[in-house]
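look at this stuff:

>
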Amino acid sequence: MDARAQPQRPSPRIRALGEPGDLGWVVMAHGELYAREHGWNGELETLTCEIAGGYARRGDRAREAAWIADLDGVRVGCVFCVADPGEADVALLRILLVAPDARRLGLGGALIDRAIEFARGAGYARMRLWTNHPLEAAARLYRARGFALVASEPHASFGVELVGQTYELAL
């Protein structure tokens, strides 16, 4: 065996959300990760549950989709593309997450790209997302894909003081 052989890296994959446990993992991962990394409380888990549950209840797969990123079968990321209930031509990019051990593998950008591609194919004119100021790595990914910051507002949520940021992308 060659002593210089490198260990094989895990193989990243993005698949449609829909396997048993996917929705529960999305909610759990958001709650645990944001509590650990940012000190956020259970309000975020509640919001994530509402978004994921609404997606599952509506079942409109022509206009809405969600994806799971995995490494060798282990869930490590997600993103949702859902319809804006107030504007028929706007898709919402929601609950993007990449676990710390899967960062820097390109999964965050790949998940966003998958959602943008879906939104274009579904006929949306724009995509919008809402995030918060401590999530700068995600904001860099959004800006790199052409999203522009269109609104910013301080608020108290998830047990902390934050600055909410709204980004939009013309499709």
Summary: The CA atoms of residues 21 and 106 lie 24 Å apart.
